[in-house]
Design goal:
The protein is of the alpha+beta class.
Length: 103
């Protein structure tokens, strides 16, 4: 999902990168959920290549969310292993991630 972002940053030889978005005063807020580029950057951070910190308002209540809040780390064999072996080693980690959404 974030391959293009990664390739662009590598081609620019970026060592450090930061973005900040602020909604227009009086607006309904940012439409981040509809922006594929921002979603891919958030996914990249979730995969361990940085961090995301989001502050906003939901139902009149101020909320903050960060990829640093509860990271999930899964160790896998080196890339020389068949995909089935790599996937099998990550099954439990993937379950932990999916459990965040189901409950």
């Amino acid at each position: 999902m974030w391959k293009n972002v990664d390739q662009r940053l590598r081609s620019l030889e970026v060592a450090s990168y930061r973005e900040e978005y602020d909604a227009e005063p009086g607006s309904d807020g940012l439409a981040i959920s509809e922006d594929n580029e921002i979603k891919s950057k958030i996914a990249m951070a979730e995969d361990g290549y940085g961090s995301v910190y989001i502050v906003g308002e939901v139902g009149g209540e101020r909320k903050a969310v960060s990829t640093r809040d509860a990271p999930v780390i899964g160790l896998a064999p080196y890339d020389d292993q068949p995909p089935e072996v790599v996937l099998e080693s990550l099954v439990e980690t993937l379950r932990k991630i999916l459990d965040r959404f189901t409950g």
